[in-house]
Amino acid sequence: MNSRKIEKEYNFIKNDKLIYNYWEKNKYFNSLPDKRLSYVVIMPPPNITGVLHMGHILNNTIQDVLTRKARLEGFNTCWVPGLDHASIATEHKIITELGISKEKIGLKRFLKLANKWKLKYSKTIIKQLKQIGCSCDWQRLKFSLDDNFSKSVQKIFINLYKDGYLYKKYGIVNWDTKTKTALSNEEIQYKMCRGKLYYIKYQLKNENNYIIVATKRPETIFADTALCVNPTDKRYLNYRNKKVIVPISSKEIPIIADNYVDPKFGSGCVKITPAHDYNDKLIAERHKLEIINLIDKNGKLNKSGLYFAGQSVKKARIKIIEFLKKNNYFFKIKESNSQIGYSERSNTEVEQLLSSQWFLKMNLLVKKALHNIPQKDIIKLYPKKIKKKIKDWFLNLKDWNISRQLWWGHRIPECCKTDKTVEVLDTWFSAWIWPIVIFNGIMNNNNYELQYYYPITELVTGDDILFFWVIRMIIAGFFFIQKKPFKNIYFNGIVKDSNRLKMSKSLGNSPNIKQIFNKYGADSVRCGILIMAPIGKDMVFNPDTFLIGNKIKKKIWNAFKLILTFNIKTQKNNIEINNYIFSGIKNKLYLLVKLLNKLLKKYKLSKGLIIIYSFFKKDFCSVFLESTKIINCYNLTYSFLKKISQVFRKILIILHPFIPFLTEYIWSILKLKKNILHNKKPLLIQKWPTEKNVNINILNEFKKITKIILQIRKFREIYKIYNKIQVLVYCNNKKDHQVKQNILILLGNLKSIKCLKQKNNYNKYYSFILADEIYLIKRPKERFDIKKIKQELSYYKNYLDKIILKLKTSSFLKKAPQKIINLEKNKKRYCLNKINLLNLKLTSSKY
């Protein structure tokens, strides 16, 4: 870190790791309770199922920006990192990689392999988190299957069981046939799918007639125990209490009436299969119907499926429809859209099966946990729109199925089991007590660390785990230790691929993180991902944004190198001009600090980074440093160099949360420069700039100078006038400050600034207006190819006539989609603008 040699560009491959090791070695991330105010962040623990994806990069970059700023503000920052065992996903990954079932491996060997997997991917994930620059307290790293976690989970399970909040029940559950485990309602993603509605004829008993039944699942016909109609449906008044013969099985079942049936759905008559539909099960309980289990845990028909037994659900559906058609039981098929539930982990269509599972009484738990919460315990949520989602979840609250038919995870306590089946708890059952367990609050809710660090200051997470994790942690905090777990929760947007699918490990649609960091470096990746991520909104990943990060880094690096070229001299020329521009940049910096504090408080990190870079590029570099260089010819007094150093140091501090590696590296070099007074402590523990009053008059003058200089540069760019060539500027403001005029003349390389006369021919000038001031710069005479312009003009006039004719044609306006009509209108506008521009060129060529 202390090399004196200044490279042409910052070497992130060599330096980032050295800088991070320096921070970690000196324990700058570590936290112990002291007299300072705590600032606590908990990392949503990544699953140990592989490497990180872009969603993790965004989430952890946001956390690191907030943590580093809080550290600079003097808080005792404690960012607790973690890793989650992810029962379903990890077990599925291991089995897939091995290519054989876990039963063939055996429990003991499987757990050994799972622990090896954990060690391997934990190292990879931690390495990647460090590569991002995460300033976590690594001595506090937690894993959700650690000994303390296991003890805490066992304790709350037993207590909940004893207190009547837990029960075991044989009933309908969501079943993942791929991972072969039960799922909670929150672990299902519903997709609108194009399907079919099958109309089947059921023969009425002892009658030469039949009733038409509409179903989306003909394969469950063997589990039918009744047909059902709505009691108000007049079409079926004469059918009620009769019996029908089930096709294929020839079983007799009754026709019943229940208000649950929608008369408008299909034929208005549905079949009831209580073993494979939650609502059918409720109907069966009301009408005391038989229950027939048909589908096994592999998603295949069991022996109740007669000669279709052993076939998968989808294969059986095809074969059964063929049989029904062949034997005249089939009536018709209609296309139908419906919401189909898929496993969030395996992306497999979920089956509803009968199974014995553990459930948590959520309504009872929530009633006790969230009863009479005082105003001081209200958690602040960002963005606020998330509140509605939470309210909707509480309105549809169901008991939580917490048992899983897996081997990797927290075991059901032996004292509560009635059989020897190996089962574990839902991963989220350990995750919901995460904020408490990381400070040992379940085993000892009176310990000093819990009192000091709890509640957590910030939780930054995606709203995709709002129901899985966030709401449950809130409930757990109030239920187990009667305190809110968080002061603030910020829901960042979800990173999506080009197909607008969420980036995830299971889909494998994230770019290679290692390659991205090797190509761009952590600072560029952090800048790019933050600029891409407006507050709380989802974003489509675009690697080009990392080039913006490169641009920002290059600008900082070049400014740093320029400052190092300044020399100290004893003579005191240009003091008035130097002080004028310094007071301008100083007040602009004061304003920046105020704006930035407001933005970061509202989690507007993207906007915050943009305004910092805008200030740095336009105000600090283009005006302040450039004017300093030109006015003083690289030779400065010691006192003015000190002032430049002060401003640059504050800018580095402000930039540090966003761009930690480059800023720390520059800071480390500045420490070695004897001619620049500098604090010897590392950058990450410096003091965040305090807010100061802004002098509005000075600020406005500085803004005006900046805008004028940018307009002069724009003029030079348009008319290709080199910076070495002096230009004459006219202005209508006679009372302009002489110092301001001198700065403009030097920075704009002007001949002079003359008073604007009324008789000036404006057509000959490039003009711009700032407030009530008019500025003119004489345009050079442009040479145009008149023949070529006239040809182009003729082309666009003919093209415009065709478009106007098309837009007047009634048949086109009636038949064409609005999108095409709008496209033609845009073409018309483009042609008109082009024609105006070409006419201007012809006119200006006459001067």
Descriptive notes:
- Strand 19 (456-462), helix 14 (466-480) and strand 20 form a beta-alpha-beta unit.
- The chain has 847 residues and is α/β, with parallel strands linked by helices.
- The strands form 8 sheets. Strands 7, 8, 9, 10, 11, 12 and 13 form a 7-stranded mixed sheet that branches. Strands 2-1-19-20-15 form a 5-stranded parallel sheet, covered by helices on one side. A 4-stranded antiparallel sheet has the order 6-5-14-16.
- Helix 18 crosses helix 23.
- It is built from 26 helices and 28 strands.
Indicate the percent of residues in helices: 40-55%
Q: What is the count of DSSP helices, taking H or I runs of 4+ residues?
A: 26
What is the number of strand segments?
28
Cα(first) to Cα(last) distance is 62 Å
Q: Give the strand content.
A: 15-25%
Low-confidence stretches: none
Give the structure's gist in a few sentences.
The protein has 847 residues and is α/β, with parallel strands linked by helices. The strands form 8 sheets. Strands 7, 8, 9, 10, 11, 12 and 13 form a 7-stranded mixed beta sheet that branches. Strands 2-1-19-20-15 form a 5-stranded parallel beta sheet, covered by helices on one side. It has a 4-stranded antiparallel beta sheet with strand order 6-5-14-16.
Give the topology.
Elements: H1 12-25, E1 38-42, H2 54-72, E2 76-80, E3 82-83, H3 87-98, H4 102-105, H5 107-132, E4 142-143, H6 147-162, E5 166-176, E6 181-183, E7 188-204, E8 210-215, E9 226-229, E10 243-245, E11 252-257, E12 269-272, H7 278-287, H8 313-326, E13 330-343, E14 351-360, H9 362-369, E15 380-382, H10 386-395, E16 400-401, E17 403-404, E18 424-425, H11 427-431, H12 434-437, H13 448-453, E19 456-462, H14 466-480, E20 486-492, E21 495-496, H15 513-520, H16 522-531, E22 539-540, H17 545-565, E23 567-568, H18 575-601, H19 605-632, E24 635-636, H20 638-655, H21 660-670, H22 696-718, E25 727-731, H23 738-748, E26 750-755, E27 765-770, E28 773-778, H24 786-808, H25 810-815, H26 818-844
Parallel strand pairs: 1-2, 1-19, 3-4, 9-11, 15-20, 19-20, 21-22, 23-24, 25-26
Antiparallel strand pairs: 5-6, 5-14, 7-8, 7-10, 7-13, 9-12, 10-11, 14-16, 17-18, 25-28, 27-28
Helix pairs in contact: 1-21, 2-16, 9-14, 16-17, 17-19, 18-19, 18-20, 18-22, 18-23, 19-22, 20-21, 22-23, 24-26
